[in-house]
Specification:
The complex is a heterotrimer. Chain A is 59% helix and 1% strand. Chain A is mostly helical. In chain A, a hairpin with a 6-residue loop joins strand 1 and strand 2. Chain B has 11 helices and no strands. Classes of the chains: A mainly alpha, B mainly alpha, C alpha+beta.
Chain lengths: 331, 261, 106
């Protein structure tokens, strides 16, 4: 069967495998059902397994957006490496940004093994054909932003990533475990920057509050709009395990008390824990803003993509000669 | 632990301060320059590698500034020394004062710097100034990887005909004349040689460095770096680009002087 | 001159003394030398490994054939769980009038 989105597996499947849906003699529909049963009852999938196109495409899209986000997430922070006000902060921020690049590597590797070459993914990102998370489309204005991003943006990301550690797609699940372990340091660095400034001069404290006021909107939008569990195909295939709302609630539950304990305020008068339901109530995030931003119309979307494009082109001569991509592998 | 008083004679303390400042500023400037490649290197894996090298240099700078703070003992800590000087107060080698350039510039600069630094560190390995000897032992172990990694790239660029080799040669043309500034003579260095703080004087170090790199340059058919023009300003004439960078890297600190970050 | 092709290299790591080598992930590299450096970066830059093995993915032989690894006939005689003696021991103790012993040593 041919599907324009179907991708050739990078590795040839073994002759015989432990899983019945890998058996070539079975019909496509039979394999699909066996695969679906396997995955929905908690079974894991490896890069060499047969997958329905729907699953392969869904995992690839999910992982690719995640990889793109790590790569683009480098840009808001890297400009502050130069401006870091102490040697230790400079080291910590360089290490953090390095980790984001490392995470991009890990995630693009997972996606490459699903059949899409890395260069194609980066070209698609630069051409605006694929997306990256909303928070990386906004400017950073002060050193306080560095603290807020490292603490709260990474915290929101880690809440999502922890829920992916048991993804049905095993290479992604394993990568998530490694990433979660590495991200925990970033959050500590971020929180340390914030707490240091909050207990510093009045000006430093004001910088933090101002940054928090600016970032709260994008943070609330980050996990995405509420959608019903039954309609979510990524949940069905167990690519992810929690809904947007579950992730947002988890984030609010851990981090709002930690923000308030520093004496900081949040720009949402409706924000609070409902004593009856146990859920956090909040003003409806601006979903129009989210839609606008992730379609590359955010304040920094185009300039950051252009910056990436410029550097990608400037280093092409290295990739074309010394770090050449492998020729495409035939199915 | 006070290290300066019992170990250093007043005559040599000033010379050692300048040596430490030179080394620390070299590591600091190449560290933050190379950290600029983070996120935009030719390939993701290489991006992580270059970032590690940059972090190592920043870590070395930090250790050297700390030792310097103990030696000068004037109340400043490592951060104050690193950040709170005007641009003309920086003492890094002119080799490191060029614009970032392309990947060939990055590799050429690193190769020239790391090989020179390696010779400098070797001459300090038996230093009579114990804290420096101990620090240098650690730095040399870390710098081994730098030389390995950057040599690998230097070879590949030089041996890949076409654009890589052409760009490397152009980078060497730009940077070559300033390469030996890393090993330019320091004020009162003979006092340090006599006190056993460094084993030989700078001219001998430069000769050793040239002897080290010549076989590779010969084999790869590359022009050796010429002698330094204007050796007296090897560490004191700084570019407009550095002044702008100074403006950037001190901007947050200058916004709230004395604050804790 | 044709450029060497990038290919995946699998990285195995040892976390502490005496541990087995465990698979960590993979890096893209054109040859072994760069693969080793990249393995160090992605799986060792935090001092989290004391040893790394780097292998071309193409050199790894994969076996997942269930006939070889999960053959159908009973092999319980090869596992501890294949020896259930609870009832027989209970019968022997009843016969000898002995209690279930506690381990004794000095």
């Amino acid at each position: 069967m041919t599907d324009p989105l179907a991708l050739d597996p990078v590795l040839p499947p073994g002759e015989r495998s432990r899983l019945p849906f890998n058996e070539d003699h079975r019909s496509h529909d039979e394999r699909y059902e066996l695969f679906e049963t396997h995955v929905t009852s908690g079974g894991k999938v490896e890069a060499t397994d047969w997958m329905p196109d729907e699953y392969r495409t869904a995992v690839l899209r999910f992982v690719e957006m995640h990889a793109n986000s790590e790569l683009m997430g480098v840009l808001p922070e890297r400009e502050w490496i130069m401006r870091a006000p102490t040697l230790r902060r400079k080291l910590a921020l360089t290490a953090k940004v390095q980790d984001e690049v490392g995470h991009a590597q890990l995630l693009y590797r997972v996606a490459e093994d699903l059949g899409k070459p890395r260069a194609a993914m980066i070209e698609d990102l630069l051409d605006g054909k694929t997306k990256f998370h909303n928070v990386f489309h906004y400017p950073t204005r002060t050193w306080a932003d560095v603290g807020i991003i490292a603490w709260l943006v990474d915290a929101a990301a880690i809440v999502a990533q922890q829920a992916l550690r048991n993804s049905s797609y095993a290479p992604y699940a394993r990568t998530m475990r490694k990433i979660c372990w590495e991200e925990s340091v970033h959050i500590m660095h971020g929180r340390d920057v914030v707490v240091t400034m909050v207990t510093g001069t009045a000006e430093q404290r004001a910088m933090i509050q101002e940054a928090l006021d600016r970032w709260w909107g994008p943070l609330m939008q980050m996990h995405g709009p509420r959608s019903p569990r039954e309609k979510d195909r990524d949940l069905h295939w167990r690519i992810k395990a929690k809904t947007s709302e579950e992730l947002r609630q988890e984030f609010l539950g851990i981090y709002v008390p930690r923000i308030w304990e520093l004496g900081l305020t949040l720009p949402d008068p409706e924000l609070g824990l409902d004593p009856v339901t146990g859920d956090w109530r909040y003003a409806e995030p601006d979903w129009n803003e989210l839609r606008t931003v992730v379609t590359n119309n955010g304040p920094m979307s185009q300039s950051r993509l252009a910056f990436r494009r410029e550097n990608w082109n400037a280093t092409a001569w290295v990739r074309d000669t010394i770090l050449a991509a492998a020729p495409a592998v035939a199915a | 632990m006070t290290t300066s008083s019992p170990d250093l004679l007043p005559a040599t303390r000033n010379a050692v301060s300048l040596l430490l400042l030179a080394m620390a500023d070299d590591e600091f400037v190449i560290g933050f320059s190379d950290s600029e490649w983070t996120g935009i290197a030719p390939m993701l894996e290489e991006d992580v590698a270059m970032s590690s090298l940059a972090q190592d240099e920043l870590g070395h700078a930090q250790a050297l500034y700390r030792l310097l703070a103990e030696v000068v003992d004037d109340g400043r800590d490592a951060d104050a020394i690193a950040y709170d000087r005007p641009p003309e107060g920086y003492y890094h080698a002119r080799l490191l004062d060029h614009p970032r350039g392309d990947w060939a510039d990055a590799i050429a600069r690193r190769f020239l710097y790391d090989t020179a630094d390696s010779v400098r560190l070797e001459a300090l390995a038996e230093s009579s100034f114990v804290p420096l000897r101990e620090l240098v032992a650690k730095l040399r172990r870390e710098e081994r990887y730098h030389v390995m990694h950057v040599s690998l790239w230097f070879e590949r660029l030089a041996s890949t005909h076409g654009e890589p080799r052409r760009r490397l040669i152009e980078a060497l043309e730009r940077l070559g004349p300033d390469a030996a500034t890393v090993l330019a003579p320091l004020p009162n260095e003979l006092a340090m040689v006599m006190a056993g703080i460094v084993s030989v004087a700078s001219p001998e170090l430069e000769a050793r460095w040239r002897a080290e790199i010549e076989p590779a340059f010969d084999r790869l058919d590359l022009p050796m770096p010429p002698a330094v023009a204007e050796p007296d300003s090897a560490r004191t004439a700084h570019s407009e680009a550095f002044r702008r960078l100074w403006g950037e890297f001190t901007s947050v600190r200058r916004a709230e002087p004395g604050a804790t970050w | 001159m044709t450029a060497p092709a990038l290919e995946p290299w699998e990285v195995f790591r040892q976390e502490k003394d005496g541990d087995p080598m465990r698979h960590g992930g993979s890096v893209m590299a054109p040859d072994a030398e760069l693969a080793v450096h990249y393995a160090r970066e992605l799986f060792g830059r935090r001092q989290e490994s004391i040893r790394l093995w780097v292998v071309r993915r193409a050199d790894i032989h994969d076996l997942a054939d269930p006939d070889l690894l999960q053959p159908p006939l009973d092999r319980s005689f090869k596992k501890p769980g294949g020896y259930v003696m609870r009832e027989k021991l209970a019968a022997a103790r009843e016969q000898s009038g002995q209690e279930k012993p506690q381990a004794k040593s000095r």
